[in-house]
C-alpha cells in the first residue's frame, strides 16, 4: 500500500522555516506593508495633526519611524536569519515554560486588536449603510469575523495572496482621497496644519508614532522568518513599516483637518465615495486583522502545545464575540499593554546576538524558565507605564535589557 500523504505544514509553527519555503523581497515587502495598514494608527495621526504643525508632524514621523524601524528591523533580521517565529525565539530567550509569558502577552493583545478592528469596520459601515441598528452592526461583525478568521486560518499563503490584492488598493485609493481632501481645503496642507493647538512636542509626537505599532511590531519574526535571508528580512521590514505607518498617520491627519475625524473612511464619505470608502476601510482592517490572528494562533499553539489552525479559530471566535465590548471598553487597556511587549522583543534580539552559536543548533537544550528574562519583561512593563519621562517603549526596553544582561553575566560566571 502506498503511504498516506501527509499534509504539508506551510506555517512551520514548531520549527524553522526551511530554505525552499522562503520568499523574495517583493513578496515580503507586500506582506509586511499589509501588516502595517492598521486603522488604529489613524487615531494617532489625528492626535499628531491636532498637536503639531506640518513640519513638526513630519519630524515626529521621521524620529518615531527611525526608532520603530531600528526595533522592528532587528527583529526582522533575527526572524529571517533563524527562520524562527517569535514564540520559538522566546523559548530560547525565556526558557521552555518561560516563553508562555511572551506568548500569552502577544496573543492577548493581538486578539484584542482583532476585535477592535472588527468593530471599527462594522460600527461606521452599519451606521452609514444600514441605519446603525444593533442587528445590522452585529451582522457585519459576524460576517467580517468569519471572513477574516477564514483567511488567517489558511496561513502565510493566504496572507500573501490577500496582501497582493489589498495593499495596492488601499494605498492608491486612500492616497487619492487624501489628495482630493487637501485640494478642497483652505490653503495648502501646511496652512491647514497651522491651525493645530501646538500641544505636542516633537519627542511627544515621536513617542506616539512608536507606541502606535510597537506591540504589533514585536510579532515581526512571525512573518520575517519567511524572508530568504536576514538582509531581506530587515530591509523589507524597515521600509514597509516606515511607508505603511506614515501613510496611516497622513490618512488620520488629513481626516482630522478635513472632517474633524480620525479615519480616511470619513473623508471618503464626505467626498461621496461611499462604496470605495467601505472597500478601503474593510481591506485596511483585514490586512492587519489577518496578521493579528495568525500571531495569536502561533502564541496559543506554543502555550497549549496544539496545532496553529485550531488556535486561530479559537482566537477569531473570542475576538468576534468580544469585539464591540473591546472597542468601547478596552482600547485604553490595549494601549497600556502596548508598553509591555517591547521588553519581549529586545530580549529576543539581545539573546540572539549574545548566543549566535546556540541558534545554529536545531534542538538546543532549553532552560525551563530564564527568570532574568521574565523579570526584565515585568520590570520593563512597569517602568514603561509609570515613568513619564522620554519614550515609554524605549524606557521599558532599557530596563529589560539590563535585567537580561545581568542574568547572562551570572550564568556565564557559574559556567
Rough outline:
globular
Mean pLDDT across the residues is 89
**Helical proportion?**
over 70%
Number of helical elements? 19
Strand fraction equals under 5%
Number of strands: 0
Radius of gyration: 21 Å
The biggest sheet, with number of strands, parallel, antiparallel or mixed sense and barrel status, is: none
Cα end-to-end separation = 53 Å
Overall description:
It is built from 19 helices and no strands. With 415 residues, the chain is mostly helical. The radius of gyration is 21 Å and the shape is globular.
Short summary:
By secondary structure, the chain is mainly alpha-helical.
Task: Give keywords.
415 residues, 19 helices
Please render the helix and strand layout as text:
Elements: H1 25-36, H2 40-51, H3 54-82, H4 86-94, H5 100-130, H6 134-153, H7 156-184, H8 189-193, H9 202-217, H10 221-224, H11 230-259, H12 264-270, H13 274-304, H14 308-321, H15 323-329, H16 331-338, H17 342-354, H18 371-386, H19 392-414
